[in-house]
Specification:
heterodimer, A: 492 residues, alpha+beta, Cytochrome Bc1 Complex, Chain A, domain 1, 2 domains, 7-stranded mixed sheet, 16 helices, B: Cytochrome Bc1 Complex, Chain A, domain 1, 5-stranded mixed sheet, globular
């Protein structure tokens, strides 16, 4: 839906007419190809690891249960607010109304009992401030965020409170929202990235909420004012919500302003919303979303992995960094810097309260689809089959620890860390000890994690591309299931 | 434009007062020194001890506008080669050293310039200076045909990923090609597949010698160091790199357009019809361009903007509509882009967009609409201060383009001078049919489905 306007191109991510019908012959996968990087070792590197002391937040609870985290930072005249409302995310959509949480969040910003949507926008934008509400289709919580110059904090807190507590859900706005959303459901099918994520999440999570990447037109149609009012009333509760505030404000002022804005929010008195893991993933499978005319294949290869609270979190995070974390990951060095098959190849770890996924992705030119899948599988296998060299592990440990130190330039990033700690009930010294935990991971622990979580028999392969050119190649990896760009299974 | 100080290094301390524009929120102003080394390298240093971090940005005065016919895409391809190793740095070692030490880095290319930046913990100052100076000095000797071929195919995948495999990918290239008469801005930064394939090692070496000379670059560095010590180190790493003859000037001779240009495109990857309108406008940092920037804000900044409130929300003829005044060193385009709501025609959408432009010219503009643009410029200035990287990038770019790094502090003030009358005047002057190019992109059903 986004109109693309960025005009600058970048060396990594940011931003011959080959229509070969046959696949280029795929050589035996090399795997662990580090040919893409040559280290001459002549550059002057300081070996000191930056020691950082984390600023500590002030934390307290309001009587209604809302947990408050305040991080004082007077460097600039700015204040940012992040609120996470457990229970208000798409995870808790009624089974017959997928997307309701996301519709509710979007429509909360479209007018309150005393202000129209246009009035809110005008008031905020005239002072260069923002208030947004959102809820993911798979997430446990809904989120409200706000940001402004310190001088406008009272205005913005009043709007945030009004949007959260008194949304109007007017029929006129609901009708508009439905039209717009249904058009974007259509539009997103033109994006290879959406098609990949739609099929991949379904393959990884099945019917679990983690498998949702888009509502349907039917669920948009059946949305009524009554359903939105009901969802808001029963799911937007302070009992298990947290609000973080960071910036040019003292803890005393923050307490006063937060009590003023959210003190009247009524406690629900319900039990903490429960979360369940997805059913264990099935055997390895191969899936094609046939997109005729595609000049690249979008690859997603991965499996279910761990939740955010898993004791293996730090190990798997490091493992992910080694396989596909940025331009120093093995996937990038192999598929791009050595082979020149792609603009970028990466992997990522998605962790929530329930068991999330680990996924490798790349967009490669059509005629190397088979080779790129083989190399990706070989890189994964390389972490399972033998212990990684100690020096490679140490390089990545230093990377994680040092980039953590650098991330502290942004106070918002640190606040997010503290919000995460509270949401997942991590120990109070969790971030202080983070560097030590990362440095303590051993090659043996990484190999054990790779064997445990990235077993070949559970790896799923999802490809969006031109079926007339890649079907035969994909069949070499196992029985193939084919879908069209509408998301429907195609019989073969 | 380049001022080479003969003999000793000259440092000028800039101190620009901003109190007038900042109102209630008094943000610190960016202070910096501005020095030119004997070899012509301009060095801007801004000390800031708020976090143990620094960022360096080098802007080279070369973009796709400097390319020649048959080598479109070369400036950007060359940018990729800057990461494939120099005499003392291996291929990919730059990535490994910067990320491996907790930093960030990238290079970007647009029509007007190419820049490279690194952000690192404060104790790695020598590392960044070593990496940047080694490639400025020796890249030409390290190019191999294998490395070049590797990045040609990588960039071709970048093109497929960003253009050829995306809906509306062709639209961008078509509108610039149609709107501009002269070569420098007519072609895309990514270039054509054929031209990319044609690039040779000799092209890379010649381009390096001409454009990657110290006298064609500005280095800005912002962060946690002592200015004098930092300057001494920069002198040590960069001082011996020889200057080169100045590159040939870019000639952009854009004639006044006399009649509307219009073209239709079919796009098999798109699902919705889209209209792109581009009006010729002057270069950035002129009074007219500032007024056009505020005009773009009135039309399309945020949800309270006219295109969103009227065309998207009230009339519901567009799913999305945006307007922007492109900031070019040379003649630019004021772009209006909108996606039609299913069931609405492009003719209806075009009429609605034209109606909003007409209302700017002959209707009333409220003062809050102008305040919005002012406050937003001030707020983004303040937000920009939170990152050393953004400051380094802006300082080196303003020095390269306008010989005035101090614009980082005075830009919000300049925009604040724009009045309602200015906005209406530039709308009447530039947003007229004979000055525009229109491209309509229509979805076309994909090629026959058939079997697999």
């Amino acid at each position: 839906m986004r109109i693309r306007t960025a005009l600058a191109l970048t060396a990594i991510v940011g931003l011959t007419v080959a229509s070969l019908h046959a696949q280029a012959p795929a050589p035996a996968a090399q795997g662990q190809s580090l040919k893409g990087v040559v280290l001459k070792g002549k550059a002057p590197v300081s070996k000191d690891i930056l020691k950082v002391t984390l600023p500590k937040p002030q934390e307290f609870d309001l009587p209604n249960g809302l947990h408050v985290i305040v991080l004082e930072d007077h460097r600039l005249p700015l204040v940012t607010l992040q609120m996470s409302i457990t229970g208000a995310g798409g995870y808790y959509d009624p089974a017959d109304h997928i997307g309701l949480a996301s519709f509710t969040a979007s429509l909360m910003r479209e007018g309150t009992t005393t202000k129209t949507s246009a009035q809110i926008s005008q008031q905020l934008e005239t002072i260069a401030a923002s208030v947004t509400v959102s809820a993911g289709l798979s997430s446990q919580s809904g989120g409200l965020s706000a940001s402004c110059l310190t001088e406008n904090l009272d205005t913005v807190m009043a709007i945030a409170s009004d949007v959260l507590l008194n949304p109007a859900f007017s029929e006129e706005e609901i009708a508009r929202y439905k039209t717009r959303t249904k058009a974007s459901l259509l539009q997103q099918r033109s994006s290879p990235g959406f098609l990949a994520s739609e099929r991949y999440s379904r393959v990884i999570y099945g019917d679990h909420p983690g498998g949702r990447s888009s509502p349907t037109a039917e669920s948009v149609d059946k949305t009524t004012r009554a359903s939105l009012v009901e969802f808001h009333k029963t799911h937007y509760l302070p009992d298990f919500a947290v609000v973080g505030i960071v910036g040019d404000i003292t803890p005393a002022e923050a307490r006063k302003k937060i009590e003023g804005a959210f003190g009247a929010w009524k406690k629900g008195g319900l039990a903490r919303p429960v979360v369940e893991d997805p059913a264990p993933i099935g055997p390895a499978g191969v899936y094609l979303v046939n997109r005729p005319g595609s000049v690249q294949s979008s690859l997603s290869i991965g499996t279910q992995a761990i939740s955010r609270t898993s004791p293996d979190y730090d190990v798997v995070r490091l493992l992910n960094e080694i396989i596909g974390g940025g331009p120093t990951g093995r996937l990038f060095l192999n598929l791009r810097e050595d082979k020149g098959w792609t603009y970028g190849a990466y992997s990522g770890l998605s962790t929530l309260r329930y068991r999330g996924d680990w996924t490798a992705t790349a967009e490669v030119r059509t005629d190397v689809t088979e080779g790129a899948i083989r190399e990706t599988l070989a890189e994964i296998a390389g972490t399972r089959d033998q212990p990684l060299p100690l020096s490679a592990v140490q390089d990545k440990q230093r990377l994680l620890v040092a980039s953590f130190a650098l991330s502290l330039e942004s106070p918002q990033g640190l606040l997010s860390n503290y919000v995460t700690s509270w949401l997942y009930r991590l120990p109070a010294d969790y971030w202080d000890k983070y560097p030590d935990r990362v440095m303590a991971v051993t090659p043996a622990a990484l190999q054990a994690a790779a064997k445990k979580y990235l077993d070949a028999s559970r790896l799923q392969i999802v490809v969006v591309g031109d079926g007339s050119k890649i079907t035969e190649a994909l069949k070499k990896f196992g029985p193939l299931q084919v879908y069209d760009t509408e998301g429907k299974k195609v019989s073969q | 434009m380049r001022r080479v100080a003969p003999g000793a290094v000259v440092a000028v301390v800039m101190a620009i007062c901003l109190a007038a524009t900042l109102g209630a929120a008094v943000a610190p102003k960016v202070q910096f020194t501005d020095t030119t080394l004997k070899n012509g390298l301009r060095v801007i240093i801004s000390e800031d001890h708020t976090a143990p971090v620094f960022s360096i940005a080098i802007t080279y005065n070369v973009g796709s506008r400097n390319e020649r016919a048959g080598r479109t895409g070369f400036a950007h391809l060359f940018e990729h080669m800057m990461f494939k190793g120099s005499e003392n740095v291996g291929s990919g070692e730059h990535f490994a050293l910067i990320f491996g030490n907790g930093g960030n880095m990238n290079g970007t290319t647009n029509k007007d310039r190419t820049n490279y930046f690194d952000q690192l913990p404060a104790n790695q100052l020598d590392l960044a200076l070593f990496l940047e100076s080694d490639r400025m000095q020796t890249l030409g000797s390290a190019i191999t045909p294998e490395n070049l071929q590797n990045q040609i195919t990588t960039v071709q995948e970048e093109r497929r990923q960003g253009v050829d495999n995306q809906p509306y990918g062709k639209t961008f290239e078509t509108i610039d090609d149609l709107a501009y008469a002269s070569f420098p801005y007519k072609h895309s930064v990514i270039g054509s597949m054929t031209d990319l394939s044609a690039a040779t090692v000799d092209d890379v070496k010649a381009f390096f010698k001409t454009y990657y000379a110290p006298n064609n670059a500005v280095l800005a560095i912002v962060g946690d160091f002592k200015t004098q010590d930092c300057l001494a180190r920069i002198q040590k790493f960069f001082g011996s790199i020889p200057a080169q003859a100045p590159p040939p000037p870019v000639v952009i001779d854009e004639p006044v357009q006399k009649a509307e240009k219009r073209q239709s495109l079919d796009d098999s990857l798109a699902r919705m019809a889209r209209i792109d309108m581009a009006y010729h406008i002057p270069q950035a940092m002129t009074a007219d361009h500032d007024a056009l920037t505020v005009l773009a804000s009135v039309l399309s900044s945020g949800r309270s903007s006219r295109l969103n409130e009227s065309v998207v929300r009230q009339q519901q003829v567009a799913m999305q509509a945006v307007a922007m005044a492109e900031e070019n060193r040379g003649p630019g385009l004021f772009r209006v882009i909108a996606m039609a709501t299913p069931g609405k025609t492009i003719a209806e959408l075009e009429k609605a967009l034209d109606g909003e432009i007409e209302k700017i010219k002959s209707g009333t503009i409220e003062s809050w609409e102008i305040d919005k643009a002012r406050t937003s410029a001030r707020a983004s200035y303040i937000r920009g201060l939170s990152s050393t990287l953004q400051r380094a990038v802006m300082l080196s770019q303003y020095a390269t383009f306008y010989n005035n790094p101090g614009l980082i502090n005075t830009r919000p003030e300049q925009l604040a001078k724009v009045t309602i009358a200015d906005v209406q005047r530039v709308a009447k002057q530039y947003l007229i049919p004979e000055n525009r190019t229109v491209v309509v992109t229509s979805p076309r059903p994909a090629a026959p489905k058939g079997g697999l």
